[in-house]
Specification:
Strand 5 and strand 6 form a beta hairpin. With 151 residues, the chain is of the alpha/beta class. It is 45% helix and 26% strand. The protein starts with a helix and ends with a helix. The protein has one domain: Mannitol-specific EII, Chain A (3-Layer(aba) Sandwich).
Length: 151
């Protein structure tokens, strides 16, 4: 099997998220990610799985981080789509500032766990000030995440 780095698609959203309810934000991020990763034909499947998971348990991790995720049958490559909200998005459990959407192949559940653990570990190393500073420069945040996720 290829290294995760050889498989992963990564995109950091270029703009500040507009404050809205978490469901609206999730729909918007799934749409943007589906376009970006050329998976627009799977958008409904991705949003349905992400919403189902959120109903079971909030994907708010802590430290201002929410990691909504979906596992999709037949997906060729995992994708990570990152967005930031300085004002915060009211996620079911807390206020999220960094939202990291994971879209992974159903057939490869270990990729989901790998990505999730790396993202949480990376976030724990940042102070709030460092996170806000990175949010000003999406290309810098993308470069750091590439390193952290071994992209």
């Amino acid at each position: 099997m290829d290294k995760l780095a050889d498989q992963l698609l990564l995109k950091v959203h270029e703009q500040e998220l507009t404050p809205a309810d978490w469901q609206h934000v999730l729909h918007s991020l799934v749409h943007s990610a589906a376009l970006c990763f050329n998976e627009i034909h799977r958008e409904d499947e991705i949003i349905a799985d992400a919403l189902d998971r959120e109903q079971v348990e909030s994907t708010y991790i802590g430290l201002g981080l929410a990691v909504p995720h979906a596992r999709v049958h037949g997906l060729q490559r995992p994708g990570v789509y990152v967005a930031f909200s300085r004002l915060g998005i009211s996620w079911p459990a807390e206020e999220a500032h960094l939202i990291v959407l994971l879209i992974v192949p159903w057939e490869n559940p270990e990729v989901h766990l790998q990505l999730l653990s790396r993202i949480v570990r990376w976030r724990k190393t940042l102070t709030e000030a460092e996170l806000y500073a990175l949010a000003e420069f999406p290309e810098k945040l993308e470069a750091i995440l590439c390193t952290e996720l071994e992209v």
